[in-house]
Amino acid sequence: MASTYTNPEYPYRRSPDQDAAAPVHHPVIIVGGGPAGLAAAMDLALQGIKTVVLDDNNTVSVGSRAICIAKRTLEICDRYGCARPMIDKGVIWKHGRVYFGEEQIYEFDLLPEQHHKIPAFINLQQYYFEEYMVDRCRQMPLIDLRWLHKVTEVTSSADRATIVVETREGPYRLSCDYLLVADGANSPIRESLGLESKGQVFEDRFLIADIVMEADFPAERRFWFDAPFHPDQSTLLHKQADNVWRIDFQLGWDADPDEEKKIENIRPRVEAMLGKERKWELEWASVYTFRCRKMDSFIHQRVVFMGDAAHQVSPFGARGANGALQGVENLCWKLAAILDGRAPPALLATYDTERQHGARENILHSTRATDFMTPKNAATRLFRDTVLDLARDYPFARSLVNSGRLSTPCTYDDTPLNTADQADFDPRMRPGAACQDAPITGAGGQQEWLLQRLGNRFVLLLYGTLPASAGQQLEAALARLKREGNRTDVLWILPQGQQGSKDNEVVDSEGVLAQRYDLRPGSAYLIRPDQHVCARWRTLDADAVVAAAHRALGQDLAEEQAA
Amino acid sequence: MSKLNTDTNFTDADAFYAALADVHRDRSDAESAAINARLILLLANQVGDQHILEQALAIAGQIHIEE
Ligand SMILES: Cc1cc2nc3c(=O)[nH]c(=O)nc-3n(C[C@H](O)[C@H](O)[C@H](O)COP(=O)(O)OP(=O)(O)OC[C@H]3O[C@@H](n4cnc5c(N)ncnc54)[C@H](O)[C@@H]3O)c2cc1C
Description:
heterodimer, A: 563 residues, alpha+beta, FAD/NAD(P)-binding domain, D-Amino Acid Oxidase, Chain A, domain 2, Glutaredoxin, 3 domains, eight-stranded mixed sheet, seven-stranded mixed sheet, globular, B: 67 residues, mainly alpha, 0% strand, binds flavin-adenine dinucleotide
């Protein structure tokens, strides 16, 4: 096997907890140092919460798995401070081709919208993605990352969880207020608690091969239905960093996974595809059966499930790790507010409701893509082939071709944390939506991005100026929120052509911000710590801001429960 | 004269395709053929305009199946 990547080896370290007479108590313990667990540790650290992260291994992902990292994921990582190396290392792509049989039936350009800091997608091997996260975790003093510490037992009660951790130097016990479990799709902890992730197994197998080659074709996504070199099945070719190319061969249900993984069986498949003359080497290969499933509830007393342990999707649409990070950012600010006593424990249940919605959406999209690619009967096979045939000449049919709808952020439309619009607004940035980025200029004239100014606490975004009386009322309202522990910062947006004089006065330098958020003088948005909108107004009312912040912190839920 | 629209016009193309697959799930070939015939007649009536229907029929008739 070729190797463009050497897995880092993180050392085992003995923790003082292992020498304590009684089990040491921590506010939050995270099980699993994959994308979900690492993201949770960074998110909580940014909110001032200490965590212990336990991983049974001493390195990042062995072999790539995830390759397609979506914009929202990178925006979340940018908030954590680790997106830059990902974007620098990753392959930015926006062009794709779709083939049916011998021919290309169409090509597409993702035509990414201008004026965003982060590209629409990058392709980056999962091991790099995780390595850059680990690097960032190690810079954060609130994170205690313990490699080769394996959780072997979990007991949960109404007010705490206790665990047994196995190490090469023997076992030890810990307890915590909240145990965040991100131990992967097979989640032994989920099973040990008698909990289940339910859904559908797709009766199909895929050979996933990462090969190294110097190729003369561009970084495009190429997808074949029924390719001449791989008849009746689909094939995908996509570029990653270091001249590594991902090839997915659909194999069908009858394929023998152990045979298909052998290099002598992979070689002829790749040669049929790329030609015998082309030089390449295998970097990593595996055979997968995919499934879509989720738990009925992600919360079990003080144990909270995240990532693949909570919800799993087939990779068409790249919603696994991307979905995991959207879940993590949803959970962490809520947990921090509860631990600080700034929000009632009832707020936690909205992680479940909001992310059940997200998980259902991800499962729906990846199920539809899988169903399109693997027709279940003669009728759907005929429709699929007819769609592909018509797609060559008729644009309408292209909208039906589905080889994966790439991950986009979920909008929490029905959450009780939203304050419904009272005024007329463009629906795009409605309550529940993830904030879109826009270029801004700071008071010193420096170019910046809106999203860098949002997150980790509530932000009230205000467009234009306020009458003096309204300004005083607002100040009193913000002071009240601050007294309650919920710091809410104001970000003044000034129209193009003006100039800010304070740090929190920024200019909508391209006019894009006002457009994207449908701002008119006096418009205001309240934005959650996870950069999702929770309320907006055409005219600011200080009491309404306090009420909306309380609502977003789950105070109405607590009253309902108490009543 | 009215022209057949071959640009995307679905409000939700993926949801339509999923519903189409659903109506054919666990059906015999004969049942599927009958479902398709009924569907075409219903949609043709919705379109109504004979001129447009003829353009659609002309495209649909251009099949090339190797026997
Ligand atoms: C072929 C393939 C292609 C994919 N492509 C994409 C893609 O393009 N985009 C995308 O977003 N997603 C993709 N995915 C999905 C993605 O890989 C997963 O969603 C992601 O890894 C989930 O992260 P996680 O942190 O939940 O779990 P994992 O990555 O599985 O991490 C679990 C961690 O927990 C540790 N652990 C397990 N048990 C214990 C224990 N008892 N004690 C301590 N530690 C423990 C493990 O060592 C591991 O580090 C793909 C998956 C596959 C298989």
